[in-house]
Amino acid sequence: MQHRSFIITLFLTIIGFNMKAQHQTNGGYAAVNGLQLYYEIHGSGSPLVLLHGGGSTIKSSFGRILPELAKAHQVIAVELQAHGHTLDIDRPLSFEQDADDVAALLQQLHIGKADFMGFSNGGTTCLQIGIRHPALVNKLVLLAAAYKRSGMPPGFFEGFENVTLAHMPAPLQAAYLEANPDPAGLQRMFERDVARMKGFKDISDAAIKTIQAPTLVINGDVEVILASQALELSRTLPHARLMILPADHGDYIGEAGAPDQSGKLVPLVTAVVLSFLQG
Predict the structure, then answer these.
(1) Share of the chain above pLDDT 70, in %
(2) Secondary structure, 3-state, the chain
(3) Measured at the alpha carbon of residue 161, what is the angle toward residues 159 and 164, in degrees to the nearest 5?
(4) Mean pLDDT across the stretch 20-39?
(5) Closest CA to 128 of 186, 207, 62, 57
(6) Domain ranges of the chain
(7) pLDDT band at 26 (very low <50, low <70, confident <90, very high)
(8) Of the CATH numbers 3.30.450.20, 3.40.50.1820, 3.30.70.920, 3.40.718.10, which one belongs to the domain with range 24-278?
(9) Are 65 and 268 in contact (CB under 8 A)?
């Protein structure tokens, strides 16, 4: 019976994917930990927090799927330090600090528990929320989440040694400037994200094993996070399911910088995520 219910949910979500979502949007800025943190609220229902990837914005990471998610959830989408509408401040950029900022935002919004979905760097931040603020977490959805340096392809970290803003995907640059038309801010975000990735440190298996929330791990088979690491992460988390797709980085959510912009997997992945969150 549960299998039949899942198939029905999947079918209805896919065929309705292109229908216009009916939801209200509001948001603004919250003063958290010395930062003016930008957020948006879409739809109604159980809270779902969206955390974008590195060098990204709400729109560039989740613009394709957010309207569908907001049909079933109160979506709280955040732009983290130095990204999009949220300006940088003079403090280190870290996944731990991002996690603390999101927790402080939810406290201000009087949200005691939520689901969290993060893409790429946002997935790593979700892991830190699960570790540092477990009482806040209902379920986690991790899309291409890094947690060990060994989980990236050979040469990944060496590639940051001589990288410049010109190497940043043009759609992500455009998305930043749409949110904040300041080229100096774009350069600052780029430098911050590069420095963070160059200094990336493993999250220990012991820390991962403290996360008790049910978790869905999603990864492409040929993307920046190796599928083998997604498998390892799913086996290290106490309560995780795994979905490996024939896809590159962000193809399956319609991310603005994704190599495949056809987005054919997007309705399927959205349906699976909604089914997991509602299960």
Answers:
(1) 91
(2) CHHHHHHHHHHHHHHCCCCCCCCCEEEEEEEECCEEEEEEEECCCEEEEEECCCCCCHHHHHCCCHHHHCCCEEEEEEECCCCCCCCCCCCCCCHHHHHHHHHHHHHHCCCCCEEEEEECHHHHHHHHHHHHCHHHEEEEEEECCCCCHHHCCCCCCHHHCCCCHHHCCHHHHHHHHHHCCCHHHHHHHHHHHHHHHHCCCCCCHHHHCCCCCCEEEEEECCCCCCHHHHHHHHHHCCCEEEEEECCCCCHHHCCCCCCCCCCCCHHHHHHHHHHHHHC
(3) 85
(4) 80
(5) 207
(6) 24-278
(7) confident
(8) 3.40.50.1820
(9) no
Residue 110 has pLDDT above 50, yes or no: yes
- The pair of structure tokens assigned to 211 is 């996360």
pLDDT digits (tens, 9 = 90+) for 36-63: 999 999 999 999 999 999 999 999 999 9
- Mean pLDDT over each residue of the chain, to the nearest integer: 93
Residue 13 scores a pLDDT above 50 = no
